[in-house]
Amino acid sequence: MKSVKSKLFISFTSTIFVILLFLSIISIYFFNLNKETRTLELLDATYTQMEDILEDDESLKIKDLDKYIDLRNQFLIIFKEDSIAFTNQSRFKTQEILEQIKYEDEHEDDSKKYEDRKEQLDKKYEDYYDEGFIEIDDYVLTINSFEKDGEYYEAYLGIDEKYLEQSLDDIYGTIIVLNIVIFFLLTFLGYLLINKTINPLKLILNELEHLQSSDDLSKRLKENKTKDEFEELIISFNKMLENVENSVENIKQFSSDASHELKTPLTIIQGEIELIKNKEASKEELKAVINKVDKEQKKLQEIIKNFLLLSRLEKEVQSNKRASLDKVLFEAVELNLDFIEKKNLELILEIEEDLNVNFDEKYLSIVVNNLLTNAVKYTQEGHIKILAKKQNKNILLEINDSGIGISKEDQNKIYERFYRVDKARTSMKDGIGLGLAIVKKICERFESSIKVKSEINKGSTFSIKFKA
Ligand code: ADP
């Protein structure tokens, strides 16, 4: 596995490499570091030097030019009326080059002759003006003409290509060496920078290894005041650890509560069976035992059904469904109608039509049924009122009863699993204390909020705000 450091380092160095390569190409192009421009630069410099000398010293003889011009890598042939007036190369070499630029000599006067000569040259070397020079053998030549003391001269100024290439190679060499130096310098600086940036991550990893080897869930990463993403990472990781710790605590609490709740009906069933196992029981006694066992096994079933519902809620719920609240409410009312009538409670319904909410219908009916059953269960006389209406962009549901009410202190606890208010007051009601925990969890899943307002002996109102 490659470390983040080496990945960063590789991408850093390759970026530097590409940038330097790009800059070199741009600079070679931008500063015209190519053969053509170098040639013209060198030849122009020599020609200007020659012109300056001829202008400055009028008495200077053409044949003495080499005393004044430094012609180490260039050669100069000055030609007058078919004869060589000056050359700094051997006559043989000079002749050889001139041979290649022959022309017809049919001119009336000198000035006409040089114009024709230029025309001929232009024709022969069509590309001459494009590039600005002619290539002959290993030489690159420019041709000029000038006048001195009323006489016309032709100047063939040339440069050895090998020298040109050498001087270009020197420039390219310098660029390469410079690039290598800059590359290693930047790579070194980059290495230091990456090291400094990555170090906090290494510290975090070390600490995590320590955490892994310890069973203590209350441990946290040491917070570094680096004021960057690493600090944020540590803070959110610690928050995650806190959530994990809370969840584990919850699960522990849940399993201990659950086993306790499961144990109670089982103990009752076991007791009842023990009671009649070793004696001749009458028909009535047997019937009473069977009724008790049946009641407790139903309770067990109810507990297990709710456990399954709670565990399914963690993974199964899809929050992109739609449901009709009014339809679900009427179905719930119908289910509880017998119960309401038996208790002689007044039922008030204020339910608007077309109340579509962002909810899964199956889970919406669990929520509504739990709240309505509780309202009926904990109300001995008076009324049950259901109100459902649109409110701004939301939909509001209120289930109000005139029952026993819930104290302020208990209002915060009723959503906890297995929590049942004041056992003495509610003991006569069936229940396992999971209903509201499930309601709250489902509401959270569907981004709806649930609230309770209640006063002892006056009644309770559970309200839910749904997303429309
Ligand atoms: P249970 O199975 O005991 O009804 P719930 O989770 O549904 O469990 O409710 C938790 C507790 O909240 C109940 O035991 C009861 O004490 C209280 N409670 C819930 N709804 C009402 C209500 N409408 N009026 C009074 N108390 C209520």
Side-by-side strand order of the widest sheet: 2-1-5-4-3
Oligomer: single chain
Please give the domain count. Answer: 3
The major beta sheet can be summarized as: 5 strands, antiparallel
The radius of gyration is 51 Å
Quickly give the structural class: alpha+beta
Fraction of residues in β-strands: 15-25%
Instruction: Write down the overall mean pLDDT.
Output: 85
Overall geometry comes to rod-shaped
How far apart are the first and last residues' alpha carbons, in Å? 50 Å
Number of strands: 12
Query: Helicity level, as a percent range?
Result: 55-70%
Q: H/E series, N to C?
A: HHEEHHHEEEHHHEHEEHEEHHHEE
What are the salient characteristics of this protein?
single chain; 468 residues; Heat Shock Protein 90; five-stranded mixed sheet; binds adenosine-5'-diphosphate
Model description:
The chain has 468 residues and is an alpha+beta fold. The protein has three domains: 208 residues, no CATH class; 53 residues; 146 residues, Histidine kinase-like ATPase, C-terminal domain (Heat Shock Protein 90, 2-Layer Sandwich), CATH 3.30.565. Helices cover 57% and strands 17% of the residues. It contains 13 helices and twelve strands. Strands 2-1-5-4-3 form a five-stranded antiparallel β-sheet, sandwiched between helices. It has a five-stranded mixed β-sheet with strand order 7-9-10-12-11, with helices on one face. Strands 6-8 form a two-stranded antiparallel ribbon. Helix 9 runs parallel beside helix 10. The longest helix is centred in the middle third of the chain and has 53 residues. It is rod-shaped, with a radius of gyration of 51 Å. It starts with a helix and ends with a strand.
